Amino acid sequence: MEAPLAERIRPQSLEDYLGQPQLVGPQGSLTQQISKGLIPSLILWGPPGTGKTTLAQIIAQESKRPFYILSAINSGVKDVRDVIEKAKQSGGLFTAKNPILFIDEIHRFSKSQQDSLLAAVEKGWVTLIGATTENPSFEVIPALLSRCQVYILNAFSKSDLESLLERAMKTDIFLKQKNIELKETEALLRLSGGDGRKLLNIFDLVVNASNDENIIITNDSVLKLVQQN
Q1: Which of 109, 52, 57, 58 lies closest to 79 in space, CA to CA?
Q2: Model confidence over 94-137: pLDDT tens digits?
Q3: How many CB atoms lie under 10 A from the CB of residue 1?
Q4: Closest listed residue to residue 160, CA positions, set 51, 32, 14
Q5: pLDDT tens digit string along 181-224?
Q6: Which stretches of 94-218 are DSSP H helices?
Q7: 128, 136, 140: which is closest to 40 by C-alpha?
Q8: CA-to-CA distance for 136 and 143, rounded, in angstroms?
Q9: I need a labelling partner for 203 at 20 to 30 A (CA). Which of 32, 82, 105, 162 fits?
Q10: Which residues, including other chains, have CB under 8 Å from residue 62's CB and lie 6 or more apart?
């Protein structure tokens, strides 16, 4: 089955990562830590579709660490303990290269689930990266929050979102074979609500719905198709 467009063009390095210059630009607060491989436990807080999961994966790749991922929606305390146990076995214990445990939507974890992470974070068995769309001050227990640095991801700007569309047309294995003219972007951007993943999914849908040799994308063509769906 074909992966969604957002997955197909997911950046694999910091150079390809779009947006968040305050974190990963040349002077970004995370850039130096990543280059030195000294990654603290951290919480990434920002709107949906701004690249929190991608950034966590890139941090793991660039610092050459094992990467474990859990979603708070379908993981319980047992899952957390199992992953921590695996991480402890995977080497790098008591070194700067301890594994990264990424927890998506960490704000959905209950107090007991968050408690189950404390010892592993405190003892350095894992470096925790949590992603949340909610204010961590209210959603993450104080004991865990005090052991993490919080980094804020900003919503994508209009130019970020347009760059994302340009990248999709140039780099995606399927889209670059098509003759696409992006005449208007306002409807695409408005429907996406600033969510990069959603923008790419809508764009993919619009492109695939056309059988024309030359695919011309206008606000009207986008709105007509999305209303039909």
Answers
A1: 109
A2: 455 789 999 999 999 999 889 999 999 998 889 999 999 999 99
A3: 3
A4: 51
A5: 999 999 999 999 999 999 999 999 999 998 888 999 999 999 99
A6: 111-122, 136-139, 142-145, 158-171, 186-192, 196-208
A7: 128
A8: 12
A9: 105
A10: 13, 14, 34, 35
